[in-house]
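To: structure subgroup
Subject: Chain for Friday's discussion

All,

I'm putting the inputs and outputs inline so they're searchable in the archive.
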Amino acid sequence: MLDCEEYQLLEETLQAQLLWLDGVFLMKRSTQKLDVHLYALYNFYVEVFFDQEVRDPLYFKPFDQLGYLDRYLDDINIDPAFDYTI
């Protein structure tokens, strides 16, 4: 299992292969021109940036600092968690 720094040193083709095989898709966010997919991989996260008009990834951004997840927090709906009764 790789850590975030080791993953960053890999060629992008190998990064993609590992991400598609072992990564877990978490969610997507969009900017004006980009779609960004968030994956959990081993003990870190990877953002994959896509041009909205092109299907191929533009680049990968691995990170292990939880502060980078802040931009996703507003899009998480936890309301269904309150629908359960014990």
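Points worth raising on Friday:
The radius of gyration is 15 Å.
The chain has a mean pLDDT of 89.

D.
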